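for the writeup, i need someone to sanity check this before i put it in the appendix. the sequnce is what the collaborator sent (i think, or maybe the updated version? ugh). structure was predicted straight from it, no edits. if anything looks off just tell me and ill rerun, i have time this weekend
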Amino acid sequence: YKNKGMKRMFFFLPLLTILFGNCQNGNNQPKTNIEKEGVNILYFHGEHHCKVCEAIETNTQIVVDSLFSDAVKEEKLFFHIIDFSKPENEKIADKYQVAWDALLIVTQKGESLTTHNLTDFAITQAPNNPEKFQNRLIEIISEELR
């Protein structure tokens, strides 16, 4: 297996069995150093970026910088770019069951945790319809910041 993503997937499948066997509430899991109180945009990528991945990252950054800079300054919104192929990011990638590129918006408010998985939408819209992609991001981020 020369592809790190495939290695991760084959390693991850037995781990899923263990995790689902325990049936623990995900909210009781300790936070990683990336997750913070507020709205966390988690963009996971591998070692190499393709054009689709670049479009997702670029368009997300545009939305964050142009419309939500105040929320970033007030530490209510965080944009994390996470290379899941690095050992230090393995724990968070495993927590969110990420073995390839993914875009998640995770809101932590006290004990409440909300996750929006925008991966499929991002892959289909960010490269070819960036306006639609950005509008959906704006909608979800605005809703979660309320």
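The CA atoms of residues 96 and 104 lie 9 Å apart. The beta strands are 38-45, 77-83, 102-109, 112-117.
thx in advance!!
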